[in-house]
Amino acid sequence: MVLTALAAVVLVAAAFNVKVVSASDADTAASEGQLDPAAYAAERFDDIAAQVEDEAVPLADLLTQLEGGADEAEFGNTSGASSAYAFPVTFTAVAGTATPPILPVTVEGVPAETTVQVQIGPALNGTALRDVTGEISFNEFTNQLEYQNVSTELNDLVRTDVLEGFDAAAAAGRTIEVTGAFLRVNPQLVSVVPVSIEVIG
């Protein structure tokens, strides 16, 4: 009898500690902490672009330094120990014939065996803009998908805000000025995501 009475008391006490959560409250709780990649990218884009422009290194100089054994960390940032470095660069180049999503360019001082291209869309690839400042950390995000989606949204902003008025076909054979970021996955390929691009001659 004593055990039965104690069990009854425990059950009553437990009942008073049960919190009933409505479906709408559950949905709200589930969404808390989840990040909107588009909003995050829109909030950060101008600051990222400004930092890239402020810290950009002339491309030919950067490649010479890296070829000579310079520490990549001196000039760029990476999202992790096993990831490629992203570098902010600037250069004046002669534009080739565009084959979207890329515009091949010739940059004085860059070895002939190194291919330099500017990503012009409609699809832009890579995580260069996300990683180049060193200020966006995976720890800010719920999962890898959110982290990757921020890269996609930043690239989309380049397409709509930077490349909207750029006529790649008309630029062929002309001199352009580009500032942007690239991931050094392959030392023989520089594929730049621009934060500014302009025909100057």
Notes on the structure:
- Keywords: Signal.
- This is DUF2291 domain-containing protein.
- The protein is α+β, with helices and mostly antiparallel strands.
- The protein has helices at 2-16, 23-31, 37-55, 59-67, 128-131, 144-162, 168-171; strands at 57-58, 77-78, 85-95, 102-106, 115-119, 175-183, 189-199.
- It has one domain.
- Helices cover 39% and strands 22% of the residues.
- The chain has a 5-stranded mixed β-barrel with strand order 3-4-5-7-6.
- The relative contact order is 0.18.
- Mean pLDDT is 88; it is low at 1-31.
H and E string: HHHEHEEEEHHHEE
Number of strands: 7
Span of the ends, CA to CA: 97 Å
* Coarse shape: globular
Strand content: 15-25%
Radius of gyration: 25 Å
Class derived from helix and strand content:
alpha+beta
Total DSSP helices: 7
Average pLDDT score: 88
Total separate domains: 1
Q: Report the sheet with the most strands, covering strand number, pairing sense and barrel closure.
A: 5 strands, mixed, barrel
Strand order of the largest sheet: 3-4-5-7-6
> What percent of the residues sit in helical stretches (DSSP H or I)?
25-40%
Low-confidence residue ranges: 1-31
Pfam family, one: DUF2291
Keywords: Signal
Organism: Rathayibacter rubneri
InterPro entries: TM0957-like_sf, UCP033535_lipo
